[in-house]
TrEMBL record:
Residues 159-237 form the MalT-like winged helix domain. It comes from candidate division WOR-3 bacterium. This is MalT-like winged helix domain-containing protein. InterPro entries: P-loop_NTPase, WHD_MalT.
Amino acid sequence: MSGIVLGTPVNEMINTFNYDTYVILDDYHNLEDSTTIDSIISYLLENMPKKPHLIICSHSELSMPLAKLKANDEVFQITMDDLCFTKDEICALFTTIYSLKLGEDEIDWLLKNSEGWPTYLSLILQTYGTKQDREKCFFKKIQSEYKKFAENIFDYSVQEVFKNEPPEYQKFLIDCSLLDYLNPDICQAVTGIDNCQQIIEEIFKRNAFIFALPDGNYRLHSLFQDFLKSIFQNEDRKK
């Protein structure tokens, strides 16, 4: 699609915005073939005036070129790491917003098991009843019913993350779920696949609950890893 054909009507439209306007593209990752759309979006980003603002929400890393825009400080990117709650933020969420007084050990437990994932923390508050119930037996209840509660997390993992992965990536994740960290050589020994480095990097770009470590290896989010382990164990029992 040429810039002339696309540019004239699009520029006429966007130049009509003389006030701050926000256009939101949600679930961008659901596009089966985003090549054409990427080209259109890239053109818009290069040629839009300052008033319109484009917000793209995606589970996976965008494939369109953004280096120039980033260099000019015209792109603000929020990653999964940015959204994760810190220990202080978890404390503020439960104490300041929900008026729940948690001890240091309880906050540490929440941080360890959630790894700061906002959905996990939100589900805890939704699952365990009223403010009075939470204050009375909040922590004992969540610890005693952790496995049952975790099923809600697994459901989310299945629907929003795992099912969106290609079958070969699903199998790779299941086969490597028992590993403490994902190293290409170790993953190759486990799976027999030669291009493990490429697969790991691609999964990382797709934001499938995987973290890059300082030493060059990767690690699965503990909740997602627990979910994958449960599939591995079920499949192992069927053999």
